[in-house]
Structures are given as structure tokens and as C-alpha cells.
Amino acid sequence: MVRYGVIGCGAIHGVHCDAIKEVPGAVLSGVYDVIAEKACKASDKHGVPAAPTLAELFEQVDAVTVCVPSGLHAEVGIQAALAGKHVLVEKPIDVRLETATKLVETCEANGVKLGTISQHRFSRAIQRLHDAAQSGEFGKLLAGDAYIKWYRTQAYYDSGEWRGTWKWDGGGCLINQGVHYIDMIQWIMGGVRAVQAQVRTAAHDIEVEDVANALVEYKNGALGVIQGSTSFYPGLAERLEVHGKHGSVIVEGDQPKLWKIDAEAAAQGMYGGGVQMQPTPSLHMHNQPDMVASAAADPTAVWGEQHRLQIEDFTQAIVENREPFMTGRMALEPLKVILAIYESSRNGGARIEIA
To answer: What is the pLDDT of residues 40-70, one digit of tens each?
Structure first.
């Protein structure tokens, strides 16, 4: 059994605790928070000890999940790695590339596994889309867009001193809410070469952005758009659009809404298949016999299940002594994209290349 400790007992910790309990070969062994009251509440709820110090938590566990504010991810993860514990850190891996890289290198030097939560990579629809894009099924990739138009009230930002700050949150709608789908689109498209962007603080009393628009150039030459917000009431399902010479796919809320890839049909006539005014439930099945019969029946789209799948993979990686499906080094890529967007905006929308 891989014994897990959860560090940080804020909003997301319960998802981690519940997921660990459902993973074969894993056991929740303890929790810790710098605010003892939070740790005690988590202890009572989940039936595990609340460690009074991090050092004492490390004595009880083999691995930790790090659920502290984003600006502390690397700091806490490094402490765990130096104690010889495997580290699964919530998104983003950290808010600064320097400290995130140090976390990666510390885990490698100490021979422990490092993963970063990017649970949407465990969605069946997302994995199928990635495989289609990277296998050439689309033909030449032309565009990849990510839209994360969510809504948060001022009360959300006021609920924690770290929320909406550069130091602890690292940014706003992109690095907190948008990081998942920014990771998805850069993974699906094969990496980002450069961005040009504008971000604004438009609707909230916070330090960081709540509206962002970016033009993206991918390493394969395709173009794209990233739009993020926490200002658009009532909030919309996050959406990916991928377009290639042979077709287009739309995934919304991790469920395929349009899947139409047909090289032969795309080459016929003058106007192809005509404009798709409104994707219908039946369209998502086109040319994808390996997908589930109904998107609504896909268990990987159920809230909490993707966290469970990722923690299960991380547990198996420890037992099998292999890399997890989503490594810490992979998590550096979406962070680079987001930081480049911020840099571009600070420089009047200048084109920023990503190393």
C-alpha cells in the first residue's frame, strides 16, 4: 500500500482525500495544514490523523498530495522530496518557472516521483482528441483554440487572502482556472512556439487578470486562440476546438460535441459539408467507433473521477517504478505558456517566444 498524506486542507483537499480512498493500493494516512483548525476538521471528516508538523506527516507516509496555495507548491513539494516522499502537486506546478524547475530537479535528484494534477488528460474524449491530432488523422493541423469563460464573484476572491494575488495565486483566470485547458490544447497540438496577448482586470477588485485574450502559434505552424475569464456571467463550459485539413472537433466540458473528420468528404465539391450551425448529439459519433456510445455515459467525465484516475496512475507509477502519465516536467509547459502571455501583455502585446 502507498500511504498518502494530504498537505493543505482548503477547498480542493476533499477531492484528493476521497479519490485516494477509492484507489486500489493507496491509503489515506494523514492530513496537515498550517491552520490547525482546518487540519482537525479534515481529520474528523476523513478519519485520519492530523499531523501537528510536516515532519511528523512525512514520518507517516510514502507520498503526499500538495493542496496549498499555488505560490507555495514548489516550496512544500521540495520539502517532501528532500524527505524522500513522492510528490503529487495540484495545478499549477508553481507560479514561477524558476521554483517549478527547482522542484522538478529536486525530485529527480532524490529519486522520487513527481506529478502535477492535470486531471482532464484522463478524459477519454481528450485522450482520443490528442491521439487524433498527433497521429495525422486531422491531416495538417491548422488551428487549436481554448475557451475558458468562467464566472467568479468578488466573494470568491475575498474568501482567501491568497486568491487573486500575484504572489500566492500567480495570476488570475489563466493560471488558476485556465491552466487545465491551456495544458490540454498545448498537449493536443504538440507544444506552443509563441504568443501575443492582452490581459485585463475588468470586473473584480483583485491584483490579477480576470479577462485574457491570446493569439497562439504552435510548434507545428498551426495558429490558435486562448480566451480566459472569471467575469462572464453565468459562466460557460470550457471548450476546445481543433481544426485540421480533414476536419474539426469540438470538445466542451470534456464531452465531444462535434467530431467530423473525413479526408475524402473534405476534398469534394466547393463548400465541403456545409456550415455546422449547431452541433447535435449524434455528430460526436462520426468517424470514431472507439468512443463511447453516449458522451453522457463516459465515466471519465464525472466530477472527481479524473482525479481518482490520476491518483491511481501516480500510485501505480510508484509501485511499478515508472514515470506517471502526467509528470512534473510536463507541467512546466503550460506554465511557460501562461507566463509568456503575461509577459506579452506587459509589453503591449509583443510576440513572446517560448523556449
So the answer is: 999 999 999 999 999 999 999 999 999 999 9
- Which amino acid does the sequence have at 283? L
CA distance 237 to 7: 29
- Cis-peptide into 234, omega within 30 deg: yes
Residue 172 is which amino acid? G
Sheet order of strands, 26-32 included = 26-32, 2-7, 63-66, 86-89, 114-116
- In this prediction, residue 224 has a pLDDT band, given cuts at 50, 70 and 90, of very high
What are the pLDDT digits (tens) for 237-292? 999 999 999 999 999 999 999 999 999 888 887 777 666 655 444 444 444 434 43
Residue type, 133: A
Query: Among 178, 183, 287, 281, which Cα is nearest to 230's?
Result: 178
C-alpha pair distances (Å), 179 with each of 3, 174, 208, 234, 292: 28, 6, 15, 20, 27
C-alpha cell of residue 26: 493507496
Is the alpha carbon torsion for 236, 238, 243, 247 positive or negative? negative
Picking from 229, 126, 218, 199, the residue whose alpha carbon sits closest to that of residue 347 is 199
Q: What's the rounded Cα separation, in Å, for the pair 266 and 37? A: 61
Q: Is the pTM of this model over 0.85?
A: yes
DSSP letter assigned to residue 84 = T
20: its cell numbers: 485516494
